[in-house]
Amino acid sequence: ERGNADRLGTVDVRAEGISKRFADTAALADVTLNARAGELVALLGPSGSGKTTLLRIVAGLEQASAGRILLGGEDATQVPVQDRGVGFMFQSYALFRHLTVADNIAYGLKVRPRAARPSAAIIRARVTELLELVQLPGIEKRYPSQLSGGQRQRVALARALAVDPKVLLLDEPFGALDAKVRRDLRRWLRDIHERTGHTTLFVTHDQDEALEIADRVAILNQGRLEQIGTPDEIYEHPATAFVAGFIGESARLPVEAAGGGVRIGAHTLPMNGRRVPDGPAALFVRPRDLVMARSDGGATAPQTLPAHVAAVRRAGATRRAELRFGDSLPPVEMEVPVEVVLAKGDNIRVAFTHVRVFSA
Ligand code: ATP
């Protein structure tokens, strides 16, 4: 990968202290993050968290209110979009309907000033090569209306790659497609990334997509960077309560930390190891981190709590039980193997194998 990066002249990207205001909205507040040369970094966050704005600022389509953009270590903050050497692909940035696939892909090369424009033969060869790369060989003469949604997105990626960008910027490139096509395309994109080695910033609101294909994931919330890390770091070691709640279907329970344990409703769960300061806190737990304890010995085990089973549902290969730990507490999902006997209305004891607690 590194070798590819060197060969391409792809560069690292650094956003430094980026803030952006739109009238009375603070879209970004002091965001600093980087993507190393050849790295694929996902920008992940809920709607309105500032992902697109950050991507547009890196592209040069938008000016930051404060902060700098560095491309390959050089300050590009004042460099106009066409001179930044970035290739981009936006969900709404559709193909030109009146141009063939070949002309769409070649567009960025053909609009170059005469001196920098490759010859027609070189452009043709480049289009052929890119269509092979995106696994759509031989469709040069077709029009966008003759392609499926997934094929159009692949042509759009070929168009973004045609100009040999130093950096590739993708904004929800598969957003409008159905789930199955999205899953196929994300693997395909990772594969292309491994072959071409472009430094890539990729905006998505889909955590599975981000965790599956990115080298690192940057999590934005209300214009702030909550955490940047590898998928494993983000999943296993969320740095903030927001990340803990956002990633991996965690339930969030309001609790009270006191004397090395946490009070959940009327009961106390001892916490081994990591201490949380006494006072109000939030506990996050995932469906897989709850286990039904044996009703005999488990009944008094200190790491278990009594729970009421409000519902049991099939969920793919396993089942999910909806648990209540108290009337005023939100429901908590527990993964249940199909062979475990459990029904709505049961009262059980539940062990917490892994929880994360953040001081409120
Ligand atoms: P989504 O996933 O919905 O696309 P996002 O994370 O990409 O969201 P942005 O589009 O970057 O979020 O928007 C961040 C904030 O800035 C939002 O509150 C949005 O309403 C605001 N905003 C974005 N662009 C503009 C604009 N041109 N004018 C005014 N406000 C804007």
From TrEMBL:
Domain called ABC transporter: residue spans: 13-247
EC number(s) reported in the record: 3.6.3.25
GO molecular function: ABC-type sulfate transporter activity; ATP binding; ATP hydrolysis activity
Annotated InterPro entries: AAA+_ATPase, ABC_SmlMolc_Importer, ABC_transporter-like_ATP-bd, ABC_transporter-like_CS, Mo/tungstate-bd_C_term_dom, P-loop_NTPase, Sulph_transpt1, TOBE-like
Entry's Gene Ontology cellular component terms: ATP-binding cassette (ABC) transporter complex
Keyword terms, alphabetized: ATP-binding, Cell membrane, Hydrolase, Membrane, Nucleotide-binding, Sulfate transport, Translocase, Transport
GO biological process: quaternary ammonium group transport
Broad EC category: hydrolase
Family: Belongs to the ABC transporter superfamily.
Stated name of the protein: Sulfate and thiosulfate import ATP-binding protein CysA
Biological source species: Blastochloris viridis
